[in-house]
Each structure stands twice: as C-alpha cells, then as structure tokens.
C-alpha cells in the first residue's frame, strides 16, 4: 500500500515538474513574441525618427541654398514665419505625420567660416540626429545665375510693367526683380510661373494683431444683454474691431456674417472669416497678398477661385527681395597691332579650300555660296579683327583646337548671318574636337542690329556693345549672350540654349513660340504667346568672366560657388 502511495507521489512530482517546464516554455515563447513585436515597433519608430531628422536637414539645406549664410545671422527677411521659427530652434511637424524635427543648437557659432548644425528627429519617444556642416564661403546667397530671370529695373515706366507675360507664356524657374510694386509684374490668366517670385517690395504682411484698435471714449460696446442689434444701432466696438450690423441679429460680431467689420477703404487687412469682400478688395493671408476676383464671403484666399494673389499663377512663394545690383561688363579695346591683310572672300576654286591660319586685321571677310572658311587655331588663341563680317549661306569651322585653341573675333562695323550660315556649328573633325561654347568669343562694336535669322546657327559667346540683337526664324544659338544694347528680341521657332543672357540695359522680348533655356538677366522682360523660358543650371566655366569683369566682380557674380559645393552631412544616434 505504501509502495502504491509512493509511486503516486512520485508521479505527481513528475507531473508538476512537467507543468512547470511547459509553463516556462510558454512564458518564454510569449515573452519572445512580445519582445519581437516591441523590437519591430521600436525599429519602425527609429526609422521614422530618422526620416524626420532627414526632412529637417533637407529643409535647412534648401533654405541655405535659397538665402545663403544670412539665415545663420538672424536675417530672416526672405523666410516665412514657419521657416523663421524652425531656424530659431522651434519644433516643426510634418503634415499628417506624428513626431517632429528640430534644430538643437540654434546659436550658430561660426568658426573658420563654417557652421555646424544638429537636426533632431523625434518619433514616439525615440530620437535620431543628423549633423550638417555648412561652408559659408561656398554660399552664393541665391546668386543671379540660379534663376530663370532677373529683371534689374525697379519700374517699367509709363504703362509697361517690368515683367510682362501674355498669352500662354511660361517661365519655368525662379524670378527675381528689383520691381517695387506688384503691378510691375503682369501675368495673363493663361500664363504661368513655375517657381518663386522675389520682388524688391518692402510692404510687410499685415496680421490681425496689427490692425486691432482700442475703443474710443463714448463708443458703443457690444453686449449680449443688449439683445438684438440692427443697422440703425450704428458702429459697435468688440474685441479690438468696429462692426456694424448688416441686419437684425443677436449674434456676437465675430460669430457669423450678420455683422460687417469696418475696414478702412484702400487698406489691405488680413482676411477675416464671415467678412464680405467685394471685387478688387485686397487682403493678407498666410503672409501672401490676395485680391478678390468677385464678391465673396468665407472663401479662404489660398483655397478658393474667388481670390488670386497679387501676381497670379505663381506656383511657388512670393517674397520680398533686397535691391540687387550687378556689375556692368567692360567692352574691350580692339587690338591695333595686328598685321593688315587683304579682304578675304570665298570665290569658286577647284580645291574648295578656304583657310585662315594666322592672326590679322581685315576690312572685309565674306563667306558665301555654301562654302566653308576653316580657321586653324594651332592649339592657341587665334585673333582676328574685321570691320565687316558677312556670312551669306557661309560656314566657319575651327581646326587644330587642341587643349588651348580659341578664336577671338573683333567685329567693328557690321555682322550679318543669313540663309543657313553657321559659326562653330560644324566641325572639321567632330569625333575628336567637339564644339565648345568657349571656342569662340565675338565682340561686336557696330551700330547696326545683329540679325540671326533663317536657319543660322551660332555656337559660342558674343558681346554686343550697343546694337540690338534679333534672333528668329528657326535659328539656333548655343552660348552666352552679353549685351549693353537696348533690346534683345527672340522670336519664331527659335531654339536658344543661351546658358546666360547678361543684358542689364536691355529689354528682352521672347515671342512667337520661341524656346529659351538658361538664365536671362535683363533690364525688363516680356514673354508672349506659346513661348517658354526654362531655367537650366549654367556651366560657369564657359562664361567669359575674365574677359569682361574684374576679379572682384567675377567673385561677386559667382558668389563663391553653389551652396552644396562644400556641404558635409553626418549621422548620429
């Protein structure tokens, strides 16, 4: 009997041991699963925290590229209020995204022209950091060649604006102008600016706090105890504003549209809910100025077709710009020590070879009848001065360019290209000597306009001292155009990869379906029809800075390079 009891006791002990083991295993498995779930959630949160830090870093890089080092020097003129708060170190959230990013060291200590900034991303209690180092000597502070258009004039004069866009014209890129009023930038309903617009317009955005007024002695104050108000009750003061009842109402003045806030005529106030606005009324909303297209109540300016910004159809922001001045290029003296040579023409010859292989001064050079003038550079600078350069169905190509070959043309009185003439468009050995913009530098000192029409092609740089320039009729230009003349007209089916048009004294007019890529710097600008100006980054190595500007002016224009040249990013835990 005792034996049986002992066996039962032993079995019970074993059973308890088994249950304990099983329970331990189950607990361990549950704990492992819970740990895995927690670990996965933590990894996701860490990843999201990193994304937030990276978003903050990219925002700061964008602001630095746009406004330069002044964002670290408490100069916030070009920034929105949200970006200003971000630069000052306040937390910033992304729309529809939990967590935030924040600059953790907004004191911006500058050492050796560098600023180091830490960006914190935080999500669900987990933090990630990204560090940035900005080389302030590499910031061009949004220099002139980073825009599709810079218009130097502050006023168009008469009835003409500084910038005019009509028809379905389009500017793809940022615009900066010294224009001092919104009406100096005219954009037709079908025209479009895909980029930001910066004007030298000093008017500050008006907020509700700016326009509140104190109650004057003896004025009526709204009171619920008064009961209903009627228009005959006159002007009532309430919470910093004066109102008048539009009809019988028991509502508070800011509760619905039964009241009309009394806004002085001609002043642009902030937009108010429940306020009725008439066609032409101007308001401020989110630091942008809008004008009512028709009578409206409770339509928010940023979300309604009832409103348009003071400059319509701008996809980006409209900002204030400090007045910008850029140097005038120096037109050179023509060389007077070249060997005098006879007129050069291209009559029919059995060989069909026409070559210039030495520097020289000519009265006339005329290339006609679909013949080709080959200029031998001999791996050096070839200098040719000529009073009249005429290409009538003629071609100029360069040979033996090597690494240092370059053609400098000084044209004194007349420069014409007609038919399908071209300069540096064809190459005598295209496979080994591809054409480059800086292969040719042409200086033109004449009074007569330069007309590039038909199917002409010019591949190089040109500097016009005083004449107008007309490009049209399907011609093509690739290179930098520098002008001190009064007008540049680009029209027709022209394709112009200008790189840079530097013409601060000129009115530049683009029309008739022309397509222009690069940067235009003009006094004033007009674009019409189905025409496009598209910003493309320029290779500044091809721009003849050293020929036209002092070293100081060159540095000013280049701005020390682009903002990303010496930008270092590192990652912290």
What does this protein structure show overall?
This protein has five helices and 41 strands. The N and C termini lie far apart (70 Å). The strands form five sheets. It has a 26-stranded parallel β-sheet that branches. With 573 residues, it is an alpha/beta fold. A hairpin with a 2-residue loop joins β2 and β3. Among the domains are: 139 residues; 103 residues, Seminal Fluid Protein  PDC-109 (Domain B). One of its GO terms (biological process) is carbohydrate metabolic process. Keywords: Hydrolase, Membrane, Transmembrane, Transmembrane helix. It comes from Halanaerobium salsuginis. GO terms for molecular function: carbohydrate binding; hydrolase activity, hydrolyzing O-glycosyl compounds. InterPro entries: CBM5/12, CBM_sf_5/12.
In short:
One of its GO terms (molecular function) is carbohydrate binding. The protein is 16% helix and 34% strand. The chain is an alpha/beta fold and 573 residues long.
First-last Cα distance = 70 Å
Low-confidence stretches: 138-142, 427-433, 560-566
- The radius of gyration is 35 Å
Q: How much strand content do the residues show? A: 25-35%
Helix content: 10-25%
Average pLDDT level: 83
Q: Please give the count of helices.
A: 5
Number of strands: 41
Largest sheet: 26 strands, parallel
Please describe the structure with a list of short key phrases separated by commas or semicolons.
573 residues, alpha/beta, Seminal Fluid Protein  PDC-109 (Domain B), 26-stranded parallel sheet, five-stranded antiparallel sheet, 5 helices, 41 strands, extended, transmembrane helix, carbohydrate binding, CBM_sf_5/12
């Amino acid at each position: 009997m005792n034996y049986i009891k002992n066996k039962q006791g032993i079995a019970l002990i074993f059973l308890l041991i088994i249950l304990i083991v099983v329970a331990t295993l189950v607990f361990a498995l549950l704990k492992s699963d819970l740990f895995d779930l927690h670990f996965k959630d933590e990894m996701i949160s860490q990843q999201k925290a990193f994304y937030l830090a990276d978003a903050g870093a990219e925002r700061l890089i964008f602001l630095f590229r746009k406004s330069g080092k002044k964002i670290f020097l408490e100069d916030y003129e070009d920034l929105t209020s949200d970006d200003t708060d971000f630069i000052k170190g306040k937390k910033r959230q992304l729309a529809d995204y939990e967590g935030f990013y924040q600059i953790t060291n907004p004191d911006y200590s500058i050492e050796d022209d560098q600023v180091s900034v830490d960006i914190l991303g935080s999500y669900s209690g987990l933090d990630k950091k990204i560090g940035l180092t900005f080389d302030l000597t590499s910031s061009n502070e949004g220099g002139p060649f980073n825009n599709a258009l810079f218009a130097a004039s502050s006023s168009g004069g008469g009835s003409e604006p500084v910038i005019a866009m009509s028809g379905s014209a389009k500017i793809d890129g940022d615009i900066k102008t010294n224009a001092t009023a919104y009406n100096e930038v005219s954009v037709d309903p079908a025209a479009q600016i895909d980029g930001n617009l910066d004007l030298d317009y000093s008017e500050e955005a008006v907020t509700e706090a700016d326009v509140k007024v104190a109650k004057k002695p003896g004025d009526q104050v709204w009171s619920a105890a008064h009961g209903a108000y009627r228009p005959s009750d006159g002007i009532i003061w309430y919470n910093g504003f004066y109102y008048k009842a539009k009809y019988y109402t028991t509502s508070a003045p800011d509760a619905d549209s039964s009241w009309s806030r009394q806004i002085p005529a001609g002043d642009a106030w902030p937009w108010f809910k429940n306020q009725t606005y008439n066609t032409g009324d101007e308001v401020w909303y989110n630091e942008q100025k809008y004008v009512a297209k028709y009578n409206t109540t409770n339509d928010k300016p940023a979300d309604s077709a009832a409103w348009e910004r003071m400059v319509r159809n701008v996809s980006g922001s409209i900002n204030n710009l400090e007045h910008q001045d850029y140097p005038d290029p120096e037109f050179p003296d023509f060389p007077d020590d070249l060997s005098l040579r006879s007129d050069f023409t291209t009559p029919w010859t059995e060989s069909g070879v026409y070559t210039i292989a030495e520097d020289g001064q000519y009265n006339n050079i005329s290339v006609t009848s679909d013949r080709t003038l080959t200029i031998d550079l001999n791996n050096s600078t070839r200098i040719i001065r000529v009073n009249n350069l005429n290409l009538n169905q003629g071609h100029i190509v360069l040979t033996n360019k090597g690494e240092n070959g370059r053609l400098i043309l000084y044209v004194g009185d007349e420069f014409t290209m007609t038919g399908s003439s071209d300069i540096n468009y064809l190459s005598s050995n295209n496979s080994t000597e591809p054409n480059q913009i800086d292969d040719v530098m042409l200086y033109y000192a004449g009074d007569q306009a330069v007309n590039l029409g038909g199917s002409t092609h010019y591949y190089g740089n040109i500097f016009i001292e005083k004449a107008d320039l007309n490009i049209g009729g399907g011609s093509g230009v690739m290179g930098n155009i520098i002008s001190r003349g009064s007008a540049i007209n680009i029209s027709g089916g022209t394709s112009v990869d200008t790189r840079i048009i530097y013409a601060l004294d000129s009115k530049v007019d683009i029309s008739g379906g022309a397509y222009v890529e690069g940067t235009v710097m003009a006094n004033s600008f007009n674009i019409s029809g189905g025409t496009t100006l598209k910003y493309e980054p320029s290779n500044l190595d091809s721009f003849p800075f050293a020929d036209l500007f002092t070293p100081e002016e060159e540095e000013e224009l280049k701005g020390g390079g682009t903002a990303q040249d010496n930008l270092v990013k590192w990652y912290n835990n």
